[in-house]
Please model this.
Amino acid sequence: MSRSEAYGYAVARIRAMEPILFDASQFQRLLDAADLSGALKILGETSYASGMTEGESARFDAVLEAGLLGACEELASFVPDRALIDIFRVPYDFHNVKVLLKSGFKARSGGKKRYDLLTNLGSIPADSLIVQMESEDYNLLPFGLSRIIPSCLAVWEQTKDVVEIERLLDKGLFSAILELAKSIDEPGVLKWVRARIDSENIRNALRLQRFGFDASEGAAFLHDGGTIAPDVLTAAISEPFDNWGRVMAYSDVGAAISSVQADDDFDSLIVSLEKVLDDHCASVLGLARYSSDAPENVLAYLWGKEMEVKNIRTILVSKGTDSNRDEVRRLMRSGY
Model:
């Protein structure tokens, strides 16, 4: 079977899975629910019902994770190139490594390990990762983790600098997904990964500005491989956020963030920016929807499912906190 035929079959399978994704009317029903109990009842009438059991429906995070994991596993059963699934799942592997490292540091000072913060969405089974890290047997860990984890441990022994450890892991993460994208050798896949890197760099630059970092200190927290050079972003740290869209106007993401209005409230600004950046990443995959054999359709479906989960979680949390419905609607990501 040729590559085109293999992905033609995969895309046909994805098209058959599309009806189970939420549409606007389903999100509206959740928004219109009177309270959390009502919203969970509605959720129990959807594809997430299989993960909900009586008396445990309030544990909606586990239900939503199970839904996303199910999508990953179903696509992995027929997608020709596993690297496409790994690109999506590797960030969860790095999340788990962060959890285990921090838990280990806390345990050394008498604290408890937090295995409950691990996710099953990574490509490395969580139980296997626990065994390998606690036995200090890192040699078989993929995605550069066999090298990165010892470096993180060395930083802890020497300086106890958790920020530096986070930086090393984040740099390793984006290097790993960039290498995976290059190995697939599909321009659309690489373009999406570059958009992910741009998005993370912009988020980091804004946080650095918020915490008063000098532009010269910012480069270490930015990742190579995006469409915006790190030196452009480090220069932007000293600029008002209102100017960032103009500074990055030559890029697609620059046009996207120009719609975000600067706000004196940093938390409000970063939440608005997060939504715009997630929507930008979705738009990069948009053209693939018109192709019957484009590999990007795999990422488009998984990203769409992840945004669906984010939207549902946003709504459910809002029901528990009695948040303003219009404000919640404003924060919802674009659907698949």
